[in-house]
Amino acid sequence: MLVDSFGRVATDLRVSLTDRCNLRCTYCMPPEGLDWLPKPDLLTAEEIIRLVRLGVERLGITEVRFTGGEPLLRRELPEIVAAAAALRPRPQISLTTNGIGLARLAGVLAEAGLDRVNVSLDTLDREVFVRLAHRDRLRDVLDGLAAADEAGLTPVKVNAVLMRGINESEAVPLLRHCLDRGYELRFIEQMPLDAQHGWRRENMVTADEIIGLLKDSFDLTEDDPAARGSAPAELFLVDGGPARVGVIGSVTRPFCGTCDRVRLTADGQIRNCLFAREESDLRTAMRSGASDDDLAARWIAAVARKKAGHGIDDPGFLQPARPMSAIGG
Ligand code: SAM
């Protein structure tokens, strides 16, 4: 098992399939994009499948979430999902995506064994979408969401990041949109993970503010906290339920004490936290002929070093060198 020195057990593996993205969300990367990882540095589909198999069959991973960058840009995605779905014990398999291309791929992915999706949607206004993501693709995202629902990739979850002065006025319309369609919305506090290092605490729309904005229009009651487990979202019943909305207060309400996540970057590094400044290189080991036993031992040792918390509030906090797109969100 993947246990750290505080007794937390990592069972949820986030696998980044690429650092590339077809949007340029301002909280993530600059409009001109980034220097993407060179192709030879990326894990091949076979290497990804090998590490996922190791995680599931030998190290107690029960949930696999594919992410990026934009995971739908990875052509072998259906084959990677199918390989994960063939593992025993079968893990829960989900995908975090911006939804562009999902209208075409949702059925294929469901057939390959994908269980559900999280789709990012920060605004319902086309102009705001262009201002925020620097691409005119709102229609594709909405079509992708509908296709995911149609294909049974449910519950369809929606991730939204609010930015002061840009889309904070959309908290209520976004929730209405999701409630009307049976999607589960989660607001995520903006974290200091943008490549431009432009994050400022005072510009972050906090969990308290988000809840306040929603309470002006909805009756929110805290859902049973026991049901939250290690999930990052605090859940609220909307207007008595059963519909719910989540708020992920990564910065102001950290949940590191119950964290069960471990990350594999697109270039084969194990990371214990989005904010980690250390990584463990499984790619070089794998390409130098490491056995499964050796890779498992390296992975176990990496997780054992997991820190108690992300430390954003520590005076010495330094933003990680890699942005969110390169870590895998
Ligand atoms: N491209 C996919 C997508 O858009 O969902 C997957 C990768 S993206 C990095 C994963 C999630 O991270 C998205 O919901 C995105 O909104 C969120 N995200 C990116 N940068 C963030 C930041 N600085 N703070 C909070 N959430 C962020």
Task: Write up this protein.
Pathway: Cofactor biosynthesis; molybdopterin biosynthesis. Pfam families: Mob_synth_C, Radical_SAM. Keywords: 4Fe-4S, GTP-binding, Iron, Iron-sulfur, Lyase, Metal-binding, Molybdenum cofactor biosynthesis, Nucleotide-binding, S-adenosyl-L-methionine. It catalyses: GTP + AH2 + S-adenosyl-L-methionine = (8S)-3',8-cyclo-7,8-dihydroguanosine 5'-triphosphate + 5'-deoxyadenosine + L-methionine + A + H(+). The structure is a single chain. The chain has 329 residues and is an alpha/beta fold. Helices cover 30% and strands 16% of the residues. It is built from ten helices and twelve strands. It has a twelve-stranded mixed sheet. Helix 3 (102-112) links the parallel strand 3 and strand 4 (116-120). Helix 1 packs parallel to helix 2, helix 2 (77-85) runs parallel beside helix 3 (102-112) and helix 3 runs parallel beside helix 5 (138-150). It is globular and about 55 Å long. The protein binds S-adenosylmethionine.
Pick out the low-confidence regions. Answer: none
Radius of gyration: 19 Å
Mean pLDDT: 96
Secondary structure: helix percent: 25-40%
* Heteromolecules bound: S-adenosylmethionine
Keywords: 4Fe-4S, GTP-binding, Iron, Iron-sulfur, Lyase, Metal-binding, Molybdenum cofactor biosynthesis, Nucleotide-binding, S-adenosyl-L-methionine
Pfam family, one: Radical_SAM
Function: Catalyzes the cyclization of GTP to (8S)-3',8-cyclo-7,8-dihydroguanosine 5'-triphosphate.
InterPro entries: Aldolase_TIM (IPR013785), Elp3/MiaA/NifB-like_rSAM (IPR006638), MoaA (IPR013483), MoaA-like (IPR040064), MoaA_NifB_PqqE_Fe-S-bd_CS (IPR000385), MoaA_twitch (IPR010505), MoCo_biosynth_MoaA/MoaC (IPR050105), rSAM (IPR007197)
